[in-house]
Write a structure and sequence with these properties.
Elements lengths: L1 E7 L3 H14 L4 E8 L5 H7 L3 E5 L5 H11 L4 E5 L3 E2 L4 H12 L3 E5 L7 H19 L5 H12 L2 H12 L3 E3 L5 E5 H7 L9 H16 L6 E7 L1 E2 L21 H5 L4 H10 L1
Helix pairs in contact: 5-6
Amino acid sequence: MISIITAVYNQLAMNRLFLRAVRKFTTGEYELIVIDNASTDGSADFFAANGATVIRNKGNYPYPVCQNQGIAAAQGRLLAFLNNDTVVAPGWDRTLAEIMSSRKIDIICPCGIERLEHTSVMRRRKKRWGVIKALVGHFGSNQSQLQLMLWLMYGDWVRYTRKVYQAHGSRVIEGFNGNSVLMTRAAIEKVGLWDERLQAADWDLYARSKLRQSTHHDIQPVHVALGVYHHHYIRLTVKGGCPPMIGADKLIQYDDKWGKTEHALSRMIRQDV
């Protein structure tokens, strides 16, 4: 079983689209754990009414804090950390799990707008998405408009993701795509929980996997599966802002942690990703 963990604050239209995709395209057994950061639009009740385990925070907590809350509640052998503004690929869970098993990878991400096989492809995809987001997003972000944007970007979603898999199969490259991360429990035992001091926790996770590889040789760095494509709306619906983040004054920057003591590693990571 996979434990799917996502943190939300409002965005009910996006949450409806997210849940619909998870239900339709997740092929194996799963549980959905939602960390709700004091939503005011009924998002917590929506997820609870649809069978999710909902952890109701009294305020807005940083991303890594929410992920660790999800881990504490999770029952699955695999843990998937998904942003709520993503649309998963058909069969994403089984395909990624099979790639992880065959290639002995403990932490993997699907590809997407922010991480593709070549910088030039990524640049063109981002440009196209930027145009669509500007045109359609100007009129709002209800569920119909979100679906329209997805269609304008890809056409038939199932057909598009199938073509991506046909082109790349189980090919992987080192790197990460922070909106969707799948990891084994063994990975958590080796690299630790999400570092709650860093909002840039995906960069940190990659760095720690890289460091663990160099010191213990018992894990591979985070990899991206080029044949599994997830769409990320990239914070499209966050227009009204979020409430003040609890503990924001205690957060540190990525370079505060890695810039001096692991400067060479930090530079290598920034070149790789």
